Amino acid sequence: MTVTCETCEACCCKLEVMLMGDDDVPASLTMEDQWGGTVMRRLADGWCVAVDRETMRCTHYSRRPGVCRDFQAGDSDCLTERRRMTLKHENTRQDTP
């Protein structure tokens, strides 16, 4: 499967993103996790706060964390997350009466 910006479903934007010392993310988009580390803040539904919900693209792309820069669209990690998200969505639909 080929994943491009047009076919991306932003599945990686539901993963926890640990920030490192050289990341330049606005503080308003971050929070402290239970272990004292700094992570990207997520909304109640699990999506990263930086994701534009209409376009499913990062609103702070030029300042995105290193881990996000390293996560490549269409690579094996990306495809694994897409499959896992699809399965989770299908299971949720089956559980709904």
What can be said about this structure in brief?
The chain has 97 residues and is α+β, with helices and mostly antiparallel strands. Helices cover 26% and strands 10% of the residues. It contains 2 helices and 4 strands.
Plain-language structure description:
The chain is an alpha+beta fold and 97 residues long. It has one domain (11-95). The chain has two helices and four strands, in the order ββββαα. The protein has helices spanning 66-70, 76-95, and strands spanning 30-32, 38-40, 51-52, 57-58. The protein has a two-stranded antiparallel ribbon with strand order 1-2. Strands 3-4 form a two-stranded antiparallel sheet. It is globular, with a radius of gyration of 14 Å.
Write the layout of secondary structure elements.
Layout: E1 30-32, E2 38-40, E3 51-52, E4 57-58, H1 66-70, H2 76-95
Antiparallel strand pairs: 1-2, 3-4
How much beta, percentage-wise? 5-15%
- Euclidean distance between termini CA atoms: 32 Å
Strand order of the largest sheet: 1-2
Topology order in helix (H) and strand (E) letters: EEEEHH
Basic shape: globular
Q: State the total count of DSSP E strands.
A: 4
Low-confidence parts: none
Number of domains: 1
